[in-house]
């Protein structure tokens, strides 16, 4: 069982010394680093740390936001570690998933994250319903208007193909097919 550290600073100008010192004091035998925004999911140091840890190891960060900026990403990462038998510890927030209390706190974070996602979906649905009640419809305006559709039908009735009608009306053939069959 090994303590493995991960440190991240957002810019090249920032100094990770505080994080590195805290991780060393926490007994990390190996420390991985990144100098990249937390919003980026493809961080080489994080990928290396996640590849390095094994069953029984503990991944340690100085602070939760060093691992990920969004709660869903953080939960996904820690859950993935747990399925591999790897613990997680955040020094600043005193979260340690190798203890029952730490697992409880992390599950509460997960529940709050799911609650947040559900609220966003609910507000989006309510907003769309309110807009529909006012007669507003989302999405792009139709490319093939009623007038163009009538002209297309007349052109096609004279023996031209849908492709030729679309060219004459300056509309895409896929959009014209959809309007004709919709």
TrEMBL record:
<feature type="domain" description="Resolvase/invertase-type recombinase catalytic">
    <location>
        <begin position="2"/>
        <end position="135"/>
    </location>
</feature>
<dbReference type="InterPro" id="IPR036162">
    <property type="entry name" value="Resolvase-like_N_sf"/>
</dbReference>
<dbReference type="GO" id="GO:0015074">
    <property type="term" value="P:DNA integration"/>
</dbReference>
<keyword id="KW-0238">DNA-binding</keyword>
<protein>
    <submittedName>
        <fullName>Recombinase family protein</fullName>
    </submittedName>
</protein>
<dbReference type="InterPro" id="IPR006119">
    <property type="entry name" value="Resolv_N"/>
</dbReference>
<dbReference type="Pfam" id="PF00239">
    <property type="entry name" value="Resolvase"/>
</dbReference>
<feature type="active site" description="O-(5'-phospho-DNA)-serine intermediate">
    <location>
        <position position="10"/>
    </location>
</feature>
<keyword id="KW-0229">DNA integration</keyword>
<dbReference type="InterPro" id="IPR050639">
    <property type="entry name" value="SSR_resolvase"/>
</dbReference>
<keyword id="KW-0233">DNA recombination</keyword>
<comment type="similarity">
    <text>Belongs to the site-specific recombinase resolvase family.</text>
</comment>
<dbReference type="GO" id="GO:0003677">
    <property type="term" value="F:DNA binding"/>
</dbReference>
<dbReference type="InterPro" id="IPR006118">
    <property type="entry name" value="Recombinase_CS"/>
</dbReference>
<dbReference type="GO" id="GO:0000150">
    <property type="term" value="F:DNA strand exchange activity"/>
</dbReference>
<keyword id="KW-0230">DNA invertase</keyword>
């Amino acid at each position: 069982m090994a303590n493995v550290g991960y440190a991240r600073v957002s810019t090249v100008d920032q100094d990770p010394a505080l994080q590195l010192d805290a991780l060393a004091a926490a007994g990390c035998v190996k420390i991985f680093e990144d100098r990249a925004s937390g919003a980026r999911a493809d961080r080489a140091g994080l990928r290396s740390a996640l590849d390095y840890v094994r069953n029984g190891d503990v991944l340690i960060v100085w602070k939760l936001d060093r691992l990920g900026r969004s709660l869903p990403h953080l939960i996904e990462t820690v859950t993935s570690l747990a399925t591999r038998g790897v613990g997680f510890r955040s020094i600043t927030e005193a979260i340690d998933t190798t203890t029952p209390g730490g697992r409880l706190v992390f599950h509460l974070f997960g529940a709050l994250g799911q609650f947040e996602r559900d609220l966003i979906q609910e507000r989006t649905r309510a907003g769309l319903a309110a807009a529909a009640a006012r007669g507003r419809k989302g999405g792009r305006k139709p490319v093939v208007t009623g007038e163009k559709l009538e002209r297309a039908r007349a052109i096609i009735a004279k023996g031209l193909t849908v492709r030729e009608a679309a060219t004459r009306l300056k509309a895409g053939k896929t959009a014209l097919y959809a309007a004709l069959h919709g």
